[in-house]
Amino acid sequence: MALRELSSLEKYLGLKKPNKYSTQADKKIPVLQNNNGPPLVGLVTIACHLVKEAKRPNLLGDSAESRAVVHQWLEYRVTKLDGCTKEDIKTILKDLNLYLQDKVYMAGNQFTLADPFMYYGIHPLIVDLAIQDKEQYVNVTRWFDHIQHYPGIRHHLPPVVVPRNRLYTSKHH
Amino acid sequence: MKLFVSEGNPHCLKVLAALEVTGVQCDVQYVNHEERVVPFLSRPALPALLLPSGLHLFSSNAICRYLFEIGGQDSSERCNQWLEWEATDLQPALLQALHMAVLHGKGSEVSKVLQGPLNYLEQSLSKGNTPYLTGEAVSVADVVLWAALYPVLSDSSLASERASVKAWFDRGAVLHSCESAAQKVLQGKGLQGMKSYMQRQPAPQNSQSRDTQPCNSNPAEGVEDERAVSEEEMEAAALTWSKGLNSCPLATDRQHPILPHEGKRNLLVTSALPYVNNVPHLGNIIGCVLSADVFSRYGRLRGWNMLFVCGTDEYGTATENKAREEGLTPQQICDKYHAIHSSIYKWFQIDFDFFGRTTTEKQTEIAQDIFWRIHKHGFLIEDTVEQLRCENCQRFLADRFVEGICPQCSYPEARGDQCDKCGRLINAVELREPQCKVCRQTPVVRSSKHLFLDLPKLEPQLEQWLDKSTSTGDWTANAKQITRSWLRDGLKPRCITRDLRWGTPVPHPDFKEKVFYVWFDAPIGYLSITANYTDKWEKWWKNPHQVELYNFMAKDNVPFHSVVFPCSLLGAQDNYTLVSHLIATEYLNYEDTKFSKSRGVGVFGDMAKDTGIPSDVWRFYLLYVRPEGQDSAFSWADMALKNNSELLNNLGNFINRAGMFVTKFFEGCVPAMELQQEDKKLLALVGWELQQYIQLMDKVKIRDALRHILNISRHGNQYIQVNEPWKKIKGGDAERQRAGTVTGVSVNIACLLSVMLLPYMPTVSQTIRDQLSAPQSCVNTMLQDTGTFVCSLSAGHRIGTVSPLFQKLEVDQIEALKKRFGGQQTTAQRANSTQLAAVPAAAAEVATVNGVDPEKAKQLTQAVTEQGEKVRALKAQKAEKAMITAEVAKLLDLKKQLALAEGKSSEPAPQKGKRK
């Protein structure tokens, strides 16, 4: 899973030579052999490395603040989203929905690595949502739909249908 | 910029250390653990940094990184890698280790849990050969890891076994700043400084459960990716299959009174006692009695020795109130509602061994005995309480019996406990111009002596017992968490007496006019109800070594069962059986709102049967949405969907097909079966689901276990679909034999399903076995050990008459029900449905006044259905548009008339209470 995600990211970044990855332990942590030093371990670490390789540093944020925000969401993805239990899902979606209320992208008004990274991580949750729930988490689904249609992002994942008209009007107060 | 931290939170150590190392200027504010600083997060998250832009950072590592960056040190790739490792690998292990050490006092487990991460750190440090993690100088990675590990490394010898880690850690210790940060957070108390923080963290899951249960798998929706089945599994499944039924049938007839038996698992199951003064709603039913019923039925199938008791809780102010409202005596109220409760549970097929009540002789006897014992052992304290007394009525007034002017906002109709206008909590004696609600006289303030149970004195005993019970028993997560939070807030003495009449009298001569407070009295009801069932009740209740006690309830009842009642029993020191497994559900909502008796929203126990939907289907759906682990909602549309998709199309369809094939193709006799690889594979798959079911049910995961039943019938449907016995039966000998095997295996799976369904849908379960003429011994066989799926209908067995098990729920029908229970019931209907038992004549009167005509409504319903079908038929035939329009107009007119006859407004909108 993580490896497909990294190769999607490579394609988006326009990296010519696909890297070779291996995985470590039963948790399947990705590993990238690095010519200039010890191997890189971990999804976040490798993704940041790819961004640097592609010379697109702005994808990690263009100020100290936004870099901190981007890193926070990268960490959120691997600690909170991955391996979340059924009980956590509602809380996660509710929180993100509130967070995204006044934002276009995860880090505000600018597309960053946090967007595809969170998109890949949240995809399995969104796929399972009933239409009614999608409407309940309207800001999350709006953002999600935006990112899945962002050029060059979706790749290995199936598209999720997000209806634009409300079916369950009585759901909202 | 502002940094929010809390004491005792190990994550705050990191950011405070980073702040000192980098020298960045920033306000630091200490807040409570529970403070929600980050506006968009529903759980409190500390530390948090408010950035100049107004955004919040809530991850301690991101905050540290940021502090270093504005301090002039960008983090390198290596640094980031350490931070990621810290967050994904080290933290989960640390959390588990701290949980063990701080909350369970198992410091010895720490080294085991942390072995992996610490060894990795040791290797990296020794290989890197640099003083710090990323080189010659301190980086953010060192600060974060050092601070993360400080609580465990400073407190134990873990570091000394690892030379490089020790050298690195002591070098870190040189960083003065880190130690001063540690002092601030832990206050020099070491691990114990984190106790109150750890208590409010969710218990860490071990990594295995995480791997086996990824969040995104939803077994309800289609069988997931085919599970790989090994050869061994298939052979084992085939072997089990051939074993046949248990020869010695277990005693399925219960011999009352049931008493504990040496050498057996003796389970005493209780369901929270429903309050007598109201009709229970669906949420009450699923929360206690239904869940407990499913588990007891299941336990009997497992061959455990079960006793399931419950009863109505009848004493207290609320009953007195209700009695006054209805103009009856409290006893009459209790008699009336006890009967209502009994009949509702009977309809829901709740199979109590005994359903009693708390207003009995035994209750007085046992409650007073416990009282005297607690008294004797010095766990009671006397204190005076100021209360309002109405001289006219000659009694002290409970808070709800007083009204007056709010001392805060001068609202004239404030109640004795709270003001409805400003919402402030009020102490009844503070009300201005208080009035007795009954006689409107002015009450006077009197002080009254009361007895208090000394919970603080019992706390050490309680904690000791809780540690043991929660670690060895199955307590739901919410039960543990609520209990922890009570203990954390500190226990206070609790008043056990009240100035009321309707209650168990306090036997102490100094407190003659008083009764026991219901919270003290009611749980004793479990004992007295058992005592009314059998004289040998003490064999259950004073026998903690032989008996395991299961308490079922909704989460609001947890503290009384986990803290208060155990304290009463511990204080009595009479070797009482205390709860071993506390099973608490979350709340069930109605559609997207709450059940409300006063607004008429929701389905109440007595109305369920009026819907025409069978009791088994109600049970199935309530259990399917059982609020297990999180709140859930009852929804009509969803109920129809689950009935139609799961019961009708999946489960019912499979069982019916299997039976019909036997009837149609093999003259009603189970054909001979020659198992091939494919069949064995199916047996293995089914066996696996059965095993999961048993594992979950043993842990009282009732909702999750139900999914595995439905998975089996899904496997079965797929198997029939692939093998097409209806085609093969027309082929040559080999093909005919194949059709026979497939049919035989399928009908045996149907038999297994009937057993697994028994706890959930007892009637349907029995119907299936009747239709298959299945031997009763199959019920005792299948759920033994880890599950034994045997061939219980062997070749030649003659089955009975097969007929469909479930009916479709139509959209119209569901819409009508949704409307009826959606909170817009007219007063006439309300009166009709809730007070029928008491005042049928009055209800009928109101009904005619409003022009409601039930007889006419019935005819019209029929007419609407017929007309609806006509329209559908026309549409299906693609008839002329004009013709369809005319028929639709007729239909609409009929619906309008029906609405009138039912006493509803004929206009569909507006829906009160649903939309705003």
Kindly summarize this structure in a few lines.
Chain A is 50% helix and 6% strand. By secondary structure, chain A is mainly α.
Topology (SSEs and partners):
The complex is a heterodimer of chains A (173) and B (916).
Chain A: H1 2-13, E1 21-24, E2 29-32, E3 40-41, H2 43-53, H3 64-81, H4 86-99, H5 114-127, H6 131-136, H7 138-148
Antiparallel strand pairs in A: 1-2, 2-3
Helix pairs in contact in A: 1-2, 3-5, 4-7, 5-7
Chain B: E1 2-5, H1 10-22, E2 27-30, E3 48-50, E4 56-57, H2 60-70, H3 77-103, H4 109-128, H5 140-153, H6 163-174, H7 176-186, H8 195-199, H9 207-212, H10 231-243, E5 266-271, H11 282-301, E6 305-312, H12 317-326, H13 330-347, E7 354-357, H14 361-376, E8 380-390, E9 395-396, E10 402-405, E11 414-415, E12 432-436, E13 444-453, H15 455-472, H16 477-488, E14 494-495, E15 497-498, E16 515-516, H17 518-521, H18 524-533, H19 538-541, E17 547-554, H20 558-572, E18 579-585, E19 588-590, H21 605-608, H22 615-624, E20 632-634, H23 636-665, H24 677-698, H25 702-723, H26 725-728, H27 733-757, H28 762-772, H29 777-781, H30 811-820, H31 827-834, H32 840-849, H33 854-876, H34 881-901
Organism (chain B): Perca flavescens (American yellow perch)
Subcellular location (chain B): Cytoplasm
Domain GST N-terminal (chain B): 1-75
3D structure, described in words:
With about 170 residues, chain A is mainly alpha-helical. Chain A has a single domain (about 1-160), classed as Glutathione S-transferase Yfyf (Class Pi), Chain A, domain 2, CATH 1.20.1050.10. In chain A, about 50% of the residues lie in helices and about 5% in strands. Chain A contains seven helices and three strands. Chain A has helices spanning about 1-15, 45-55, 65-80, 85-100, 115-125, 130-135, 140-150; strands at about 20-25, 30, 40. Chain A is globular, with a radius of gyration of 17 Å. Chain B is α/β, with parallel strands linked by helices and about 900 residues long. Chain B folds into five domains: about 1-205, Up-down Bundle (Glutathione S-transferase Yfyf (Class Pi), Chain A, domain 2), CATH 1.20.1050.10; about 220-250 and about 645-825, Orthogonal Bundle (Isoleucyl-tRNA Synthetase, Domain 1); about 265-370 and about 515-610, Rossmann fold, CATH 3.40.50; about 380-500, Beta Complex (Methionyl-trna Synthetase, domain 2); about 845-915. Helices cover about 50% and strands about 10% of the residues of chain B. In chain B, strand 17, helix 20 (about 560-570) and strand 18 form a beta-alpha-beta unit. The longest helix of chain B is centred in the C-terminal third of the chain and has 30 residues, at about 635-665. Chain B is globular and about 90 Å long. Mean pLDDT of chain B is about 85; it is low at about 205-225, about 825-850 and about 905-915. At the A-B interface, strand 3, helix 2, helix 3, helix 4 and helix 5 of A face helix 2, helix 3 and helix 9 of B. Chain A: It holds the Pfam family Arc1p_N_like. Chain A: One of its GO terms (cellular component) is aminoacyl-tRNA synthetase multienzyme complex. Chain A: One of its GO terms (biological process) is positive regulation of DNA damage response, signal transduction by p53 class mediator.
